[in-house]
């Protein structure tokens, strides 16, 4: 991932040092937790490094030991958000495959509940995620996780129907990821009722898309 970023971008946004001891890891966690709390409280307004330090109970100098600027902190939060999706999707592969369409619909609903919480709890990070998508230097960061997510969706579909071809499963996985993400971004910019309705619409679209390929009654 790092090789795909320009040298200037890496220098500007990469953490200054990686925590090697438990104490250092806890300091980084305090910084990120403080930044996430403040972004949730302030909405689209990014918190200052000083505010993050104060909320974490640290000096600004301590924060700068690990992050060169507030953008690097938000970028690390975005990475953590992106990295949470593979685990959530993988849970669907760990259970027994559904034997009919209703059981599969229930599995889809469970996935939607888990992933929707990730979006709703981190709505204030969406401008950061959109900025990553629109920046050629930063896009490789999201691509890494996107590839994992598509592969997991494909594996899930093949878990349900082992006869599903790899190319077909990957294509469906890509559509599932892109449609779900784009629609949720739209929903987050509206009110909660609209968001929930869009969620229901996405579920209907997903089921209409994949059911013909799953060989379920």
UniProtKB/TrEMBL annotation:
Entry keyword annotation includes Zinc: no
Residue ranges occupied by any HTH tetR-type domain in the UniProt entry: 25-85
Keywords from the named record: DNA-binding
Chain positions covered by the region annotation Disordered: 1-24
Top-level taxon: Bacteria
Gene3D superfamilies documented for this protein: Tetracycline Repressor, domain 2
InterPro entries per record: Homeodomain-like_sf, HTH-type_TetR-like_transc_reg, HTH_TetR
Protein name stated in the entry: TetR/AcrR family transcriptional regulator
Source species: Mesorhizobium abyssinicae
